[in-house]
């Protein structure tokens, strides 16, 4: 039994709205707190508050949902150091674990069995300066890199970064996602097709189904 605790905003089960496991029933463990303030953030309610919960209790609640997939998110989950203990516990229990990280925190200590979904912040995000470029060296083939695209400048910048960082040699999947309600999704899709980019275009399924950031 572990006495370790984490500050938790919510734990719930829904369909995964993004990434390669989109549409699959997934338990979301949303940790409280984030060092970034992206202009398009849709989970600012997780910046403060939350509840201190033992990792043992988090594990028990997660098991109660009966889902195979677990996403640890935030806020910024890796801002809490005991998050790494949670990731290992989840992997040990056989869950398919993904971690949604904003890219400002060190990912090197994360359990290698967990899939990192690394969000590289674009210029229009307002948090370009907080990208921790050292994280690129720790990416595994099974990880995913995400670019949230606000406008054409973001798109061109992201194209450049894919080449500059040799991302196709590092990860199997690169995600391009338009800002919900700001950038026309069809326009982004047409840019990708025109330029023959080998990226996965994605929309946020939960917002389509429920018009809701949490996906419930």
What does this structure look like?
This protein has one domain (5-210): TIM Barrel, CATH 3.20.20. 24% of the residues lie in helices and 25% in strands. It has five helices and nine strands. The radius of gyration is 17 Å and the shape is globular.
Q: The biggest beta sheet, please?
A: 9 strands, mixed
DSSP summary, beta strand count: 9
**Which class do the helix and strand fractions yield?**
alpha/beta
**CATH fold assignment:** TIM Barrel
Taking all residues together, what is the mean pLDDT?
95
Distance from N terminus to C terminus (CA atoms, Å) equals 31 Å
Observed structural traits:
single chain; 216 residues; alpha/beta; TIM Barrel; nine-stranded mixed beta sheet; 9 strands; 24% helix
Strand-helix topology:
Elements (H helix, E strand, L loop, with lengths): L4 E11 L9 E7 L19 E4 H11 L3 E5 L9 H10 L3 E6 L13 E6 L23 E6 L2 H13 L8 E6 L6 H11 L4 E2 L3 H6 L6
Parallel strand pairs: 2-4, 4-5, 5-6, 6-7, 7-8, 8-9
Antiparallel strand pairs: 1-2, 1-3
Task: Please sum up the structure shown.
This protein is an alpha/beta fold and 216 residues long. It is 24% helix and 25% strand. It starts with a strand and ends in a 6-residue tail after the last helix.
